[in-house]
Structures are given as C-alpha cells and as structure tokens.
C-alpha cells in the first residue's frame, strides 16, 4: 500500500497530463477527481489511502484511453 506522499506525487503527475488534453475532457476528468476527493474526505483518514489509490488508477485510465484515441 502506498503512503500519502507517494499518492500526492502521482496526483501531481496526473494533473500535469491533463494540460495536454482538450478542455472538455480535462474538465470531465477533474470533475471525477474532485468528487473522489470529497468522498475520501467524508470517509475519514483511515480510509483515505485506498480511496486515493483507486482514484489515481481511474484518472490514469481515463487519461490513457483519451490520449490513445487522439494519437
């Protein structure tokens, strides 16, 4: 299981990747990202790591799918 620092680094990297996407797709991904953060905060600290890890995986998957379609 990753620690919060490692997850924060991944989050930053994912956000950087959004810069290359079109505005609508970036907004869609960031909306999902924001909802995941809110859900994680509502769950409390003990459950944050698996929620953030799942969120990272989902956001990365969406970015990958989108970039594959546009290349």
Write up this protein:
- By secondary structure, the chain is mainly α.
- Helices cover 83% and strands 0% of the residues.
- The protein has three helices and no strands.
- The longest helix has 23 residues, at 48-70.
- The protein starts with a helix and ends with a helix.
- The model has no long low-confidence stretch (mean pLDDT 72).
Mean pLDDT: 72
Task: Work out the helicity level.
Answer: over 70%
- Supply Rg: 12 Å
Number of helices: 3
Largest sheet composition = none
In whole angstroms, the N-to-C terminal distance is 33 Å
Strand portion, in percent? under 5%
Please count the beta strands (DSSP E, at least 2 residues each).
0
What class would the helix/strand composition place it in? mainly alpha
N to C succession of SSEs:
HHH
Low-confidence stretches: none
Shape, please?
elongated
Q: What are the main properties of this structure?
A:
0% strand, 83% helix, mainly alpha, elongated, 71 residues
Please describe the topology of this protein.
Elements lengths: L3 H15 L4 H21 L4 H23 L1
Summarize the structure.
This protein is mainly alpha-helical. It contains three helices and no strands.
């Amino acid at each position: 299981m990753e620690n919060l620092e490692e997850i924060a680094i991944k989050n930053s990297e994912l956000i950087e990747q959004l810069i290359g996407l079109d505005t609508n797709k970036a907004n869609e991904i960031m909306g999902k990202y924001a909802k995941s953060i809110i859900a994680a905060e509502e769950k409390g600290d003990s459950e944050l790591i698996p929620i953030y890890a799942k969120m990272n995986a989902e956001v990365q998957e969406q970015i990958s799918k989108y970039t594959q379609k546009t290349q």
